[in-house]
Amino acid sequence: MSTIFDLRIYYAETRRSEAIVSSSTHTYDFDFQHRFMPARRNEFMWGAGYRSSDNRLDGTFLVSFQPNRHLDRLYTTFLQDEIALIPDRLYLTVGSKFEHNDYTGFEAQPSARLLWTPSVEHTAWAAVSRAVRTPALSDFGLRVNYAVFPGPRGVPTVLSIYGSSQLRSETVISYEAGYRVQPHHRFSLDLATFYNVYGDLYTSEPGAPIQASEPQPHLVVPAYLTNLMRGETYGAEVATHFRPAWRWRLSTSYSWLSMQMHRDRTSQDSEAEEVEGQTPRHQFQVRSYLDLPGKLEWDSGFYWVGSLPKLNVPSYGRLDTRIGRRFAERLEVSVGLQNLLDNRHPEFPPIGSLEAVEIGRSVYGKITWRF
Question: Is the pLDDT of residue 122 over 70?
Answer without folding.
Answer: yes
